[in-house]
Each structure stands twice: as C-alpha cells, then as structure tokens.
Design goal:
Number of domains: 2
Helix content: over 70%
Number of strands: 0
Order of helices and strands: HHHHHHHH
CATH class of the largest domain: Mainly Alpha
C-alpha cells in the first residue's frame, strides 16, 4: 500500500476504464428509457387493435402502427440484445403478436410468421397462447348471437393452436409456456362444453318449433252430431 506517493503502475489505466464504462452504461440507460417508452406505445396499440376487433372495427392502421413501432424498437436495440430480450420489451412484442394473429384468423388469412412481425420466438409463442383466450371471447360473442357455425369455427381454431402449443416442452428459462398451455387447455374444455350445450339447446328449440307448427296447421277434429 502506498501512502501519499505516486499511484502504482497497475492502477494507472483504471480511471480511463471507469470513464469508458460510465459512458457505455449511460448510453445503455438512455436506450433503455427510450425502449420502455416504445414498448408502452406498442402495448397500447396492440390493446386498441384487439378492442377494435371485438367492436367489429377496421384495425389495419392500428396494427400497421404497431408493426412499425416494433421495427423501430428492434433497430434501436440491435446493439443491445440483452434489452431486446428483456421483460418489458418481450411483453410488448408478445401482445403485438397476439393482436396480429387474432386479426389474421378473423379475416381468414394465414397466421403471420414471427419473422414477418419482427418478434422473438418466445414472444410469438406466448402471444399465440394468449390468442386462445381472445378466440374464446369471440366464440362466446357468437354463441350469444346464436351464430353456432361461427362459434364452432373459432373453437376449431383454438384447438388447432393448442395442438401446436403442446409441441413445445422447453424449460421456462427458454420460453415460459407451460402455464399458458394449461390455461389454454382449460379454456378449450370449457368452450367445448358451452358450445355443446348451446347446440343441444338450439336443436331442442327447433324441434319444439316444428311440433308447434304441426299443431297449429293440422285440421281440427269435428265433434259428434
């Protein structure tokens, strides 16, 4: 240990290293703050698109804005892959994936590829899993409207998605999908039961209508003289 004398030669480069590290971390902090703002915009756009779809609105412009926001976010974070895979950013990409997938399914188009959306594999799979819940909402809407064929089509899509999801059996550190797989399974079972009840109810209603029609149109028997 040196008291009051010149610094040891081994310490001479430490100040320069510290200044460089401060600059790098300050820059990363600035990028992180910008990324969080962009992620919040992305979440808002995805949520607005989903709400609009449930109202029957044209949400193509909203989804286009979300995709552009995701593209800018990816470009911003290309020098910082750790931030690209961070929780807030990946959550935003997940919600955008969900909205894009739901929109494609509702319009009879093939589901978008994650590379087309510019999202991570994990975000895409998690968004795909959440799509099951959104499709359940559309199924119930159709059931309430008495549109059983459309409800059945939504249920078919839910089951097709689940068949894809259960192919993935990776640790949560890779993609935390197992809980969402369990949730999707439960939602599908409930929806299948509700559709079966509605179908039986409609069939009974139609049989009663036919019976009532036969009774009202059949000639009345004459009484005795």
């Amino acid at each position: 240990m040196t008291l009051g004398g010149a610094r040891p030669k081994s310490m001479k480069g430490l100040d320069a290293i510290a200044r460089r590290l401060e600059g790098e971390l300050d820059e990363k902090d600035r990028v992180r703050e910008s990324a969080l703002r962009s992620a919040r915009d992305l979440v808002r756009a995805a949520g607005a698109a989903l709400r609009g779809m449930h109202r029957g609105e044209d949400v193509r412009r909203t989804l286009a804005h979300a995709r552009e926001e995701a593209r800018k976010l990816r470009a911003m974070l290309s020098p910082h892959p750790d931030l690209w895979h961070s929780g807030a950013v990946e959550q935003a990409l997940q919600e955008m994936s969900e909205a894009a997938i739901v929109h494609s399914l509702l319009n009879g188009r093939p589901v978008p590829d994650p590379r087309e959306l510019g999202v991570t594999s994990a975000a895409y799979l998690l968004g795909l899993a959440d799509t099951v819940g959104e499709l359940r909402r559309f199924t119930l809407d159709r059931l309430r409207a008495g549109d059983l064929p459309s409800a059945a089509r939504h249920l078919d899509a839910m089951e097709d998605i689940f068949d894809v999801l259960i192919r993935f059996d990776h640790p949560n550190a890779i993609v935390p999908l197992r809980h969402k797989q369990d949730v999707a399974r439960g939602l599908i079972e409930r929806t299948r039961g509700e559709l079966a009840v509605a179908t039986r109810g409609l069939a009974l209603e139609r049989r009663l209508e036919k019976l009532e029609k036969r009774q009202t149109t059949s000639p009345k028997k004459r009484g005795g003289s």
